[in-house]
């Protein structure tokens, strides 16, 4: 027997032997044992000879006074007179369970009678659920005579008390109830209900469903909606996100949240809300149909995307929740693939592949997604699948832009993975006016043609000659621009410091200083320089100034020869 039960029984004995009346107010969550405790108190009071009224107040008095009728005020006066008469005959115990379920008229009658009948050997015992936002119940508790009212609050049992209770109820089979302990929350009523199901040889799923359904039924509709929605969102969640999911402001969540916390289904951490145990969340979520769970999760993902959560953090979840043809999910998967491709091409390929599965078959949207998937497959080493997918798109391209893109990807794969007719693919792209496609062409066409020319045995051009961009023009004229600089040569800043080797021939020596002849380089160096000059002439670069000073080779001052 708990300490609260012992205190209540002592109070009943004082009523029976000393005729001390008053009010006992008992609060606690559902299944905390309030009704069981009231039954024990009523039984003990009846054994001591007190008159016990356990039915609803007006009904109990109506049974003893059938002539009760008329307006509410007349009924209240008749009830008051009946209680006075009973109290003069001996101690009276009035037990009223579930006060929170009473209507406003009954609550008003209780407030009036407890005040008018104070001082008589009449003990009122009220039981209600804690943390309920019922204004009439709050007013009743506030208006009770403070000097004659004792309050008690029932909480969950500690683990040792739970084990003792299970042993009393199941005997040697008490170990069978151990897997259900997280679902019971230490509440005596839930423990008795689960042990009764186990004693009836119920299945595991049946016990779990019955226990969770019972605990949910004891909640008010706002609290039940809160805990059901939270069970779909995960083991822990943010209050702001929960308020947006329920379309309520945070102050409106205080009352249902207090009820859920008092019921032991959830707990408040420092910054987030969490379920008492992962099995509790899973069991609560299992009471919802799967379509409802998917809809709630999808709304949660949409709200997180609206808040700016990166697409890569939600791509897997939205891909699992989306239905075929969901264009928003396809766009999110595309964005996630663009973010993940530079560092994790395999993840990017998985996102695009899921987007292709969501796109309707035989549609231009699916072909465009296939073009995005081709380079990712190539980068991950799936060259055969990449080429097969590219050829599939080439058979029926949705538009010229997509056709040009897939041609470029086929040409780009010509290095590590040889593709026939790469030049033909590039020529198709050249005939397309799209500027973006042409920019990509300049990025990959040069390496592709260079590799094909190198395979024929010479420098990217026919018969081993220089590439077309570096061949000398007819007549020996060099291709220069501006002040003799090549377009690919970096231009030094105006007024900047010139290289030291260009300043040596211009440095003034002091008057009377002796000119020192520079030693000649060995013949091998002259030969190397001549070879380099010949090579530069072949590429149309012999007359260009390598540092951008505006002078050609013929304008350079000759060095003094001793």
Tell me the name of the CATH class of the largest domain: Alpha Beta
The major β-sheet equals: 5 strands, parallel
Radius of gyration: 45 Å
- At CATH level 3, the topology of the largest domain is Rossmann fold
What does this molecule look like?
The chain is of the alpha/beta class. It has four domains: 151 residues, Rossmann fold, CATH 3.40.50; 129 residues, Arc Repressor Mutant, subunit A; 71 residues; 96 residues, Serine Threonine Protein Phosphatase 5, Tetratricopeptide repeat (Alpha Horseshoe). The protein has 25 helices and eight strands. It has a five-stranded parallel beta sheet with strand order 2-3-4-1-5, sandwiched between helices. Strands 6-8-7 form a three-stranded antiparallel beta sheet. The termini are far apart. The C terminus is likely disordered.
Q: Which helices and strands, and how do they pair?
A:
Elements: H1 3-18, E1 22-28, H2 34-47, E2 51-53, H3 57-64, H4 72-89, E3 92-96, H5 104-116, E4 122-129, H6 135-143, E5 149-153, H7 159-170, H8 181-184, H9 188-199, H10 204-217, H11 221-233, E6 236-237, H12 239-246, H13 254-263, E7 266-268, E8 273-275, H14 278-286, H15 290-306, H16 311-321, H17 327-340, H18 345-358, H19 364-379, H20 383-395, H21 400-412, H22 422-430, H23 435-456, H24 500-503, H25 523-538
Parallel strand pairs: 1-4, 1-5, 2-3, 3-4
Antiparallel strand pairs: 6-8, 7-8
Helix pairs in contact: 1-2, 5-6, 7-9, 9-10, 10-14, 11-13, 11-14, 15-16, 16-17, 17-18, 18-19, 19-20, 19-21, 20-21, 21-22, 21-23, 22-23
């Amino acid at each position: 027997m708990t300490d609260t039960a012992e205190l209540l029984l002592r109070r009943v004995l004082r009523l029976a032997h000393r005729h001390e009346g008053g009010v006992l107010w008992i609060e606690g969550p559902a299944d905390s044992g309030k009704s069981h405790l009231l039954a024990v108190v009523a039984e003990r009071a009846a054994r001591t000879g007190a008159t016990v009224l356990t039915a609803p107040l007006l009904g109990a008095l109506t049974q003893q006074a059938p002539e009760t009728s008329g307006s509410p005020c007349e009924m209240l006066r008749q009830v008051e007179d009946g209680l006075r008469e009973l109290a003069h005959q001996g101690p009276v115990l009035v037990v009223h369970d579930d006060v929170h379920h009473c209507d406003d008229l009954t609550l008003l009658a209780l407030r009036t009678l407890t005040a008018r009948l104070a001082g008589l050997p009449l003990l009122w015992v009220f039981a209600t659920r804690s943390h309920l936002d019922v204004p009439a119940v709050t007013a009743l508790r506030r208006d009770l005579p403070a000097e004659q009212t004792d309050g008690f609050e029932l909480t969950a049992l500690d683990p040792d008390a739970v084990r003792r209770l299970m042993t009393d109820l199941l005997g040697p089979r008490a170990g069978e109830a151990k897997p259900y302990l997280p679902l019971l929350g230490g509440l005596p009523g839930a423990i008795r209900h689960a042990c009764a199901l186990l004693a009836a040889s119920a299945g595991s799923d049946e016990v779990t469903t019955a226990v969770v359904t019972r605990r949910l039924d004891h909640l008010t509709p706002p609290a039940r909606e809160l805990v059901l929605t939270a069970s779909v969102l995960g083991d822990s969640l943010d209050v702001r996100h929960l308020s947006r999911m329920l379309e309520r402001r945070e102050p409106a969540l205080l009352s249902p949240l207090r009820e859920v916390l008092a019921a032991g289904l959830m707990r408040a951490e420092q910054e987030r809300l969490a379920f008492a145990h992962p099995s509790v969340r899973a069991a609560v979520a299992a009471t919802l149909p799967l379509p409802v769970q998917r809809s709630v999760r999808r709304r949660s993902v949409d709200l997180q995307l609206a808040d700016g959560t990166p697409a890569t953090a939600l791509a897997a979840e939205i891909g699992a929740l989306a239905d075929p043809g969901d264009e928003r999910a396809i766009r999110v998967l595309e964005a996630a693939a663009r973010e993940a491709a530079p560092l994790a091409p395999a993840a990017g390929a998985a996102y695009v592949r899921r987007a292709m599965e969501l796109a309707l078959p035989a549609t231009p949207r699916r072909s465009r997604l296939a073009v995005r998937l081709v380079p990712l497959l190539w980068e991950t080493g799936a060259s055969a699948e990449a080429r097969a997918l590219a050829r599939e798109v080439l058979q029926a391209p949705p538009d010229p832009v997509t056709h040009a893109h897939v041609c470029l990807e086929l040409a780009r794969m010509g290095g590590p993975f040889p593709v026939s007719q790469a030049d033909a693919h590039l020529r198709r792209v050249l005939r397309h006016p799209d500027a973006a496609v042409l920019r990509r062409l300049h990025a990959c066409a040069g390496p592709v043609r260079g590799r094909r020319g190198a395979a024929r045995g010479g420098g990217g051009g026919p018969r081993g000659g220089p590439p077309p961009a570096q061949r000398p023009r007819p007549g020996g004229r060099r291709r220069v621009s501006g002040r003799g600089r090549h377009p690919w040569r970096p231009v030094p800043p105006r007024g900047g410091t010139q290289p030291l080797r260009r300043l040596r021939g211009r440095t003034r020596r002091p008057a009377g200083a002796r000119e020192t002849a520079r030693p000649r380089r060995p013949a091998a160096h002259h030969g190397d320089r001549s070879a380099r000059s010949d090579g530069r002439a072949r590429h149309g670069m012999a007359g260009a100034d390598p540092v951008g000073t505006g002078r050609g080779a013929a304008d350079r001052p000759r060095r003094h020869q001793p």
